[in-house]
Amino acid sequence: MSTAIEILMNGLFLGGLYALFGLGLSLIFGVMRIANIAHGELAIAGALVLFTLSAAWPVSPLLLMPLVCAGAFAFGWLLQTQLLNRVLSPDPMPALLVTFGLSVVMQNAMVGLYGANSRSIDLGAVKTANLTIAGQTIGWLPLGIFLLSLSLFGGLHLILSKTRLGRAVRATSDDAETVALFAIRRRRIFAIAMAVSAACAALAGMLLASRSSITPFSGAERLLIAFEVIVIGGLGSIWASYLGGIALALVHVAGFYFDPASGLLYGHLLLLVFLLIRPQGLAGKVVTR
Predict the structure, then answer these.
(1) I need a surface site. Which of 3, 47, 123, 148 has the fewest CB within 10 A?
(2) DSSP run (H or E) holding 133
(3) Per-residue pLDDT tens for 229-251?
């Protein structure tokens, strides 16, 4: 029984981080119908920038994370307005190729600047601090990441459902051509979505580097996690990404517990099962033509 509870809790905490990786990719695909291949590199770049800032300024990396997220937001905005908006068309291939090229450029730039060695963010005592609840030892860092992720999803849900900007984003997601008739500047909405997505990716990368180690080559693996999260969760709601993240993390944690040599394989098998029997995901809608 204690093993089941341990797997459940670890899966739940890891799932919050996975969901954060999937959130940005899901937002971009939902609003613009394109897949950002550079999403994983944006996450790793955020973590590496935090390394640089931590080395320059003698303050806790936790205090620098909002600054990195703000920089990632600005980068995402510029990426969309100065590059991706120029190639957007009914054909998603040009934008897909641009993000693929950006992914290659960013990865090579990170290797050139930081080398290929793995590294992790040192949060000091926060990284090893824990508490005990009902006989289970829980780390403060995984618990904090889970609560932060849950808060961000809740905040984004409120913005999308209760604000004028959120209604414009949802309308653009439903029909980007028609919203122009109502004086909604769809390219500005695209830029906001990309900026939020980049900030979420950077935050997820920094939190990942706080829990484990990364290299400049870790982006592809994070991109795969993000894709699996949105396929398993489904599109149509940001909470679908959350469900997908939790489900994938539970399978990974259980897989590594019972079969350490093949833990990630079970996540890929879960993806295959969903593609075969429920391609719309856990909470996605069935699309009919």
Answers:
(1) 3
(2) strand 130-133
(3) 999 988 767 888 899 999 999 99
* Distance (Å, whole) CA 19 – CA 27: 12
CA distance 100 to 106: 10
Q: Which of 242, 235, 284 is nearest to 27 (CA)?
A: 235
Task: Enumerate residues 6+ apart whose C-beta is below 8 A from 171.
Answer: 178, 179, 182, 184
Query: Which helix (H) or strand (E) segment is 103 a member of?
Result: helix 93-114
Is residue 31 within 8 Å of residue 172, measured between CB atoms? yes
Taken in order 41, 44, 46, 52, is the CA torsion positive or negative? negative
Sequence-ordered list of residues with C-beta below 8 angstroms from that of 194, at least 6 positions apart, any chain: 28, 32, 36, 76, 77, 79, 80, 84
Q: What is the CA radius of gyration of the chain?
A: 19
CB 217 within 8 A of CB 116: yes
The Cα 71–Cα 69 span in angstroms is 5
**pLDDT at site 289:** 45
Instruction: For residue 146, give the nearest of 233, 16, 279 by alpha carbon.
Output: 16
- Residue with more model confidence, 176 or 150: 150
Summarised one tens digit per residue, pLDDT across range 83-107 is: 999 888 888 889 999 999 999 999 9
